[in-house]
Amino acid sequence: MKREFTSEAPDRLWVADIEYIPTGEGTLYLAAVVDAFSRRVVGWAMEAPLRTELVLKALNMAIGQRQPREVIHHSDHGSQYTAVAFGKRCREAGIRPSMGSVGDCHDNALCESFSATLECELLDRQRFETRDEGRREVFAFIEGWYNPHRRHSALGYETPTGYERRYHREGSVAEETGEPVGVGSVEYRGHG
């Protein structure tokens, strides 16, 4: 990707990473798949052991919800993303895997940005006694706050779901009129 985390439409570029969530019972792992266009978390999964199945569940959720035609899935070189089973699932779904350079967090900066937001707005403010408590709170953060309500300066201060909704609404009008898709001075380019 050469650190070009922009997209002109949904489901063209997904970025993915794994976040470590501390609990009183030990670490809970979150695998997240973020659409570069809207910054929406389109797939996620949480497990106690860190195995390939974790990223496969997040990928399968994203595929099930979005049903992409031609999407690039970008991640780091973690063993879960380089596993044969992960590569096989990408091929089956028609997804092109992409990986950043080894040991360079800037090569997945957009997903790292989601992780930083999760840490700052949830994990640094709350401690979880159990993994189940962590699962509930992370679920509420993603589906109850981040996707539908958290505004992003890179999206013209719209929310991920609002940004996509507007794109689809105005995209259908643009198809009928031939007008370019955009809202005011904000174009839908998935600003990184």
From TrEMBL:
Residues 170-192 are annotated as: Disordered. Gene3D superfamilies: Ribonuclease H-like superfamily/Ribonuclease H (3.30.420.10). InterPro entries: Integrase_cat-core, RNaseH-like_sf, RNaseH_sf, Transpos_IS3, Transposase_IS3/IS150/IS904. Residues 6-168 form the Integrase catalytic domain. One of its GO terms (molecular function) is nucleic acid binding. One of its GO terms (biological process) is DNA integration. SUPFAM superfamilies: Ribonuclease H-like. NCBIfam families: transpos_IS3. This is Transposase.
